[in-house]
Structure formats: structure tokens, C-alpha cells
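Please, structure for the following, as C-alpha cells.
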Amino acid sequence: RRLHIAARTARILWEASGALMFAWAATLALQGLLPIATVWLTKPLVDGLQAAIGGGTSLEALRPLLRIAAAYAALIVAAEILNLARLWISLSQSERVQDHISDLVH
């Protein structure tokens, strides 16, 4: 019985929002990868900071650190953009599902 209800709910969601379900899933998956990338960049960031401190303040000593810091900043910006996209997609899905259910009832 519960499986039947879940299948019917999924069908209604698919009929109402279609491709937005894929967009929502893709955004969610990308948001799940961002913490992995952040952890992956942490060691090189700390190592670059340590090397920059030991190597002085020349541009050549700071260049690797600046590259890693730029990648880290890009991850932060990407996280915010994906969060906004996910919120927009969720709102759009909600409106479409609400309209679809209203059409089914009336």
C-alpha cells in the first residue's frame, strides 16, 4: 500500500515538474561534491601558506598559495550559486506541483 502511494506521488511530481526533478538532483549532487573538493584543497592551502611564510613575500613564493586560494574562493562562490539555484528550483517545483494538484482536483 505504501509503495503504491509512493509511486503515485512520484508520478504526480514527475507530471508536474518533469525536467526540474533532474535539475534539482543535479544541483544536490554537485552540492554534495563541494565539501569533498574543499577538504581536498585544504592540505595544499595549508602547505602553501607554510611555504609562503618560509619563503618570504616574493610573488614567486606566493604564486602557488594564490592559485589554491583562488580555487578555494571559487568553491565558496560555486556553493552559493548552487544553493541559490537549488532554492529557485525547489520554489519552481513547489508552484508547479501545487498548480498540477489544483488542476487534478478541479
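The mean pLDDT is 88. Residues 59-105 form the longest helix (47 residues).
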